[in-house]
Amino acid sequence: MERKWSLGDDRGAASVFAVAVAGVWFGLAAVGVRFGEEVVVRHRLAAAADLGALAAAAHLVDGVAVGCAKAGVVVGRMGGRLVRCDVAGWEVVVEVEGGPSLFGAPSARARAGPTEG
């Protein structure tokens, strides 16, 4: 008796392929979500640096140490860590760093002071 061609040997192959494709999509989605979280953290650090620099500039009248201390308080409350606070005249440059992450430690820098001109 001659055997007819059938799909008996290939049964379930489409299911295995579909599970593999779903796994790849899930992995890409997980990496995308993680990357999105990193972008949000970077933006929050930028905001912390901006507000820290403004706080330091606003308190320079009380002294450089007081101004930089205020910057440290503001940055700390926003979840960052003050790495550097440089003062030159009435201009303040603040550098902020976040915690370690999958893509490295995010950082931000901001300047506050009088406008030029």
Automatic annotation (TrEMBL):
Domain of life: Bacteria
Keyword set includes Transport: no
Signal peptide extent: none
Stored InterPro entries: Rv3654c-like (IPR021202), Tad_N (IPR028087)
Segments passing through the bilayer: 12-35
Pfam families recorded: Tad
Keyword Membrane appears in the UniProt entry: yes
Keywords: Membrane, Transmembrane, Transmembrane helix
Residues in Putative Flp pilus-assembly TadG-like N-terminal domain copies: 12-58
NCBIfam families, sorted: tadE_like_DECH
This protein's name: Pilus assembly protein TadE
Organism whose genome encodes this protein: Saccharothrix syringae
